[in-house]
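ARCHIVE CARD
CATEGORY: sequence design from structure
SOURCE FIELD: tokenized fold
FIELD CONTENT:
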């Protein structure tokens, strides 16, 4: 968020007021029933004339990018296939200690915020055999990070250990289990998966461990039946002490620990560029830790309670640099990396050398030894994130000082790879102007973030802003123009001006205010907002000087809803899938709308297959709208149209109904009628010049 402080957001939300991208206030009201006709009377068809000879350059796929930040449920219970919570037995959270263990009324909250229980068992785990077993979250002996789960069985012949419940097993699915453990003396250990009562055992294995060193215990099993409340238990037979350093439970069909079905949904939408690892998370990220074996990577502690509220303010580093770049490769996405500028500059240089350096020296040699001799050739490198904001802590800088930091990083990075494109962090209210005046000659791009803030049905304000779907035409365009003007003003006369990257954009999510109470929603209003924004990017991106745009963010926060055994595209995800037909096409000139009228259009031509693509939006909440598309001097053999239509605009979890749309064709004129709050994609194949045009 760039123009309104987070403290102000909280105050405005409580008053039922939203904030537009330009910083002005809006009341939480709904769209009038007659749209923009002003009378409630039927509105005649709006005519759009398209001349295929009037093209305006290529629509860059980079306008359809996404973010993958380690926040909330984007990785945990999202892209990651990992099923165990707190799997590295992280101890007390040092960033969000809200009560003491003496306050009995807050025990549940403590356990949910990373505090070990009163019995010494790590959060999300329970103790077994507590009458003859002592438990500690041990900060003296640890395997990954600062802590491990220790247990002392103090009676001979007894079994003591820990377990985790609520594991959702799918019938006829093979799972991989992995434990890292050690024992002070020789002890017999038992690994068991069972039902919630403990009476039915699905899998059990006993092994004897000794030698007072870390061991990896790996096993696999196939679930014979489904159970949404299964338990995993690890117990040891006393006398003796045992430590658990890490535990893992994954379905065996994962891709480097990531869910194949979520990756499939990302492919379905198309992700031309993917920004990682954030975002606010970047200030806590140390990339070299991601080179360690997966179970050895220490948990990363977040400094903001809204970033990782569902994992006790920890990220367990399920995605390292090689994992991310392998994901980009399978998605066909260009990677865009955000650097931690509170870390040493040398670490940023080492990362660039690891990604792009030759395979025969330095960090490039390490990359080759780890199985990837060919350089990753990462092109986009962001020097920090939202460094204009005090919420970034030690990564916060005034504009002139940040400009010095950005220039320092840029000069050092280009000595390693002169071909990269470096992104500086920008903002309005004079920040970009002052920053570019210092560092502009070293930057290829300047980033901008824009969130349209509206009340949500599950928000504190309790009102749906039905008009939000048409806002990009006004608010987002103005925001981009302001960012562009600041960059131009700060650039030296005659110097190359950095381009603009809108590398975070969306409707502002209300889960930021109370993440443990208000989860994200992504229904038709957000879907229409996304469609309006994509039409804007395609139609006006070149004139606005927009190089790229990256939606925040696809998994469990916008485009893809992830369940334990399924995924679905939300309304926003359906829109991205529909709009992928515009990628790399030649833009057909259409009039730029000056208001937020009901109908909004974008057209492009695929010259390789001679296919015309037209996206038309009806942003009226209650009324049909008719449109006519007139093709000047062109004909086509076939017309195909798909429609996304809102089923229930007031339901923030509703998706669009997708179906074919009937299009009437008379010569070179196409007529279509769009139901309320709907998005059409019309494709004309074998487009050719008409005889009358000759």
């Amino acid at each position: 968020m760039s123009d309104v402080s987070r403290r102000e957001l909280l105050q405005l939300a409580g008053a039922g007021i939203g904030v537009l991208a330009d910083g002005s206030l809006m009341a939480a009201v709904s769209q009038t029933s007659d749209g923009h006709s002003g009378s409630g009377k039927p509105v005649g068809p709006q005519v759009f004339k398209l001349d295929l000879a009037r093209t305006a350059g290529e629509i860059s796929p980079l306008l359809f990018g996404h973010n993958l930040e380690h926040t909330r449920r984007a990785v945990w219970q999202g892209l990651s296939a990992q099923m165990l919570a707190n799997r590295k037995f992280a101890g007390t959270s040092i960033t969000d200690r809200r009560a003491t263990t003496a306050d009995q009324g807050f025990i549940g909250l403590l356990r949910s915020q990373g505090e070990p229980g009163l019995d010494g068992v790590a959060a999300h785990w329970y103790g077994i055999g507590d009458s003859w077993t002592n438990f500690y979250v041990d900060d003296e002996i640890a395997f990954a990070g600062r802590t491990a789960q220790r247990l002392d069985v103090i009676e001979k012949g007894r079994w003591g250990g820990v377990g985790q419940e609520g594991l959702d097993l799918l019938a006829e699915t093979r799972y991989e289990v992995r434990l890292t453990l050690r024992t002070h003396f020789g002890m017999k250990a038992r690994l068991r998966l069972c039902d919630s009562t403990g009476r039915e055992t699905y899998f059990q294995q006993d092994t004897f461990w000794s030698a007072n060193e870390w061991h990896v215990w790996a096993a696999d099993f196939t679930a014979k039946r489904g159970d949404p409340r299964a338990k995993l238990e690890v117990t040891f037979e006393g006398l003796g002490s045992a430590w658990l350093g890490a535990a893992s439970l994954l379905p065996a069909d994962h891709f480097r620990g990531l869910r194949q079905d979520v990756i499939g949904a990302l492919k379905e939408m198309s992700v031309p560029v993917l920004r990682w690892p954030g975002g606010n998370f970047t200030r806590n990220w140390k990339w070299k830790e991601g080179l360690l074996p997966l179970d050895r990577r220490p948990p990363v502690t977040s400094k903001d309670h809204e970033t990782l509220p569902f994992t006790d303010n920890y990220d367990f580093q399920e995605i390292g640099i090689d994992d991310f770049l392998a994901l980009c490769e399978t998605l066909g996405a260009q990677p865009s990396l955000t650097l931690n500028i509170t870390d040493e500059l040398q670490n940023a240089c080492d990362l660039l050398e690891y990604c792009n350096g030759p395979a025969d020296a330095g960090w490039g040699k390490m990359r080759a030894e780890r199985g990837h001799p060919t350089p990753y050739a990462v092109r986009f490198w962001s020097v920090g994130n939202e460094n204009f904001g005090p919420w970034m802590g030690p990564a916060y800088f005034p504009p002139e000082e940040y400009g010095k930091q950005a220039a320092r990083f840029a000069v050092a990075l280009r000595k390693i790879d002169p071909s990269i494109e470096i992104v500086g962090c920008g903002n309005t209210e004079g920040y970009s102007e002052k920053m570019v005046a210092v560092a502009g000659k070293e930057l290829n791009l300047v980033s901008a973030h824009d969130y349209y803030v509206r009340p949500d049905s599950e928000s504190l304000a309790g009102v749906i802003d039905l008009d939000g779907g048409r806002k990009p035409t006004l608010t987002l365009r103005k925001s981009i123009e302001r960012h562009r003007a600041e960059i131009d003003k700060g650039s030296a006369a005659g110097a190359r001006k950095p381009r603009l990257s809108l590398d975070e954009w969306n409707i502002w999510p209300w889960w930021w205010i109370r993440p443990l109470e208000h989860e994200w929603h992504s229904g038709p209003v957000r879907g229409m907002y996304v469609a309006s924004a994509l039409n804007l990017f395609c139609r006006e991106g070149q004139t606005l000087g927009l190089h790229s745009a990256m939606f925040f963010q696809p998994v469990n926060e916008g485009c893809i809803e992830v369940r334990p055994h399924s995924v679905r595209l939300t309304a926003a995800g359906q829109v991205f899938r529909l709009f992928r037909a515009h990628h790399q096409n030649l833009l057909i000139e259409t009039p730029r709308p000056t208001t937020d009228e009901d109908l909004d259009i974008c057209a492009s031509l695929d010259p390789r297959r001679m296919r015309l693509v037209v996206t038309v939006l009806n942003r009226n909440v209650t009324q049909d709208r008719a449109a006519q598309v007139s093709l000047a001097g062109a004909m086509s053999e076939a017309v195909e149209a798909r429609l996304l239509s809102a089923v229930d605009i007031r339901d923030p979890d509703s998706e669009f109904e997708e179906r074919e749309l009937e299009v009437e064709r008379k010569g070179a004129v196409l007529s279509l009628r769009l139901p309320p709050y709907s998005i059409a994609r019309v494709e004309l194949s074998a487009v050719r010049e008409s005889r009358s045009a000759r």
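CARD ANNOTATION: The chain has three domains: 36-58+588-693, 61-81+255-449+488-528+548-583, 104-251. DSSP finds twelve helices and 37 strands in the chain.
SHELF: design records, drawer C
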